[in-house]
Amino acid sequence: MNEDFYQTLKDILRDEQILIEEPLAKHTTFQIGGPAEFLLLPENNHQVAALVKVLCEKNMPFYVIGNGSNLLVSDKGYKGTIIKIGQCMSNIVVREYDGSRYLVQAGSGVLLSKLANKIAEHELTGFEFASGIPGSLGGAVTMNAGAYGGEIKDSIMGATVVDQSGSMMYLNKEDLKLGYRKSIIQEKNYIVLDASFVFEPGNKDDIRNKMDDLNERRRDKQPLEYPSAGSTFKRPEGYFAGKLIMDAGLRGYQVGNAQISEKHCGFVINKGGATAADIMTLITEVRQIVFDKFGVMLEPEVRLLGEF
Ligand SMILES: Cc1cc2nc3c(=O)[nH]c(=O)nc-3n(C[C@H](O)[C@H](O)[C@H](O)COP(=O)(O)OP(=O)(O)OC[C@H]3O[C@@H](n4cnc5c(N)ncnc54)[C@H](O)[C@@H]3O)c2cc1C
């Protein structure tokens, strides 16, 4: 362990916020991934900025994660520091914005399910689509997460971010450059600290019914009983990844314990004990087979971390 670095970390964080050689399998929904040298759990914006500043000054590699629901981490883990923005940074504030609309500001560690429920409690509409996405707000802004016709881009006003030198700034909606599963955050490796949204009041029962309906559709169609990272591939223009994979005859196709879900071919699942290498081999083979059959090269939506 790097003792010097550990001492520097202790100037910013308490002992229990510093995990050493922490298995990342415990922090990803795939339940896969070797250890990170350090995994840090900051509690506020200033701690995140201070950590980034130190890591940059020392020229040490680091990576930010939220709920790990869109991540495939190498079996060898990550040779560097993980900053996990989670429950400790999940405060939510709701207040009047203008005559009819309300502003919702939330820490980037809040889970989308919790945020969607809070917004529903306030009888505001426009975030129902996100209630079943198992990510954090920071990950969702970064990925411009979306489902069932809604996406983060629809209601976001802006976000506070930290750049790679530890400087904080506010980016408004236009600055965030949100597109299909992309944002300026990914391009510039910014870190999202919090985000604000504007919503209109809605009917309480309609909001709840919509959330229940969407979550039921998820349970019906998606293999939620297995660890996964959701849709493995982005939607290619004019096609659906899951349909291409199914039409290529790959339903249930397996490498080691990684499998193309029989329930939803767009999901690669961990059947139990799959390695990152199994998942990668499966992804590579599926991309090649689909390309050979249909001339479409599927692009992974899942983000890769570590050596492959
Ligand atoms: C069962 C299941 C269903 C899913 N359904 C959907 C769906 O319907 N729609 C959808 O869009 N996605 C879906 N996903 C994928 C995933 O939940 C989303 O992409 C989610 O937004 C990722 O958030 P996260 O906090 O888990 O991010 P992580 O997986 O931790 O990270 C993903 C990326 O975001 C970056 N990141 C995370 N937090 C921050 C931060 N605070 N600042 C800067 N960068 C950050 C990471 O560096 C990484 O590049 C699903 C996943 C699963 C497992």
UniProtKB/TrEMBL annotation:
Keywords: Cell cycle, Cell division, Cell shape, Cell wall biogenesis/degradation, Cytoplasm, FAD, Flavoprotein, NADP, Oxidoreductase, Peptidoglycan synthesis
Catalytic site: 181, 231 (proton donor), 301
GO CC terms in record: cytosol
Regions that span the bilayer: none
Domain FAD-binding PCMH-type: 31-202
Pfam annotation, one family: FAD_binding_4
GO molecular function (one): FAD binding
Cofactor(s) it depends on: FAD
Pathway(s) this gene product operates in, as recorded in its UniProt entry: Cell wall biogenesis; peptidoglycan biosynthesis
GO biological process: cell division; cell wall organization; peptidoglycan biosynthetic process; regulation of cell shape
Function summary: Cell wall formation.
Name of the protein: UDP-N-acetylenolpyruvoylglucosamine reductase
Organism: Anaerocolumna aminovalerica
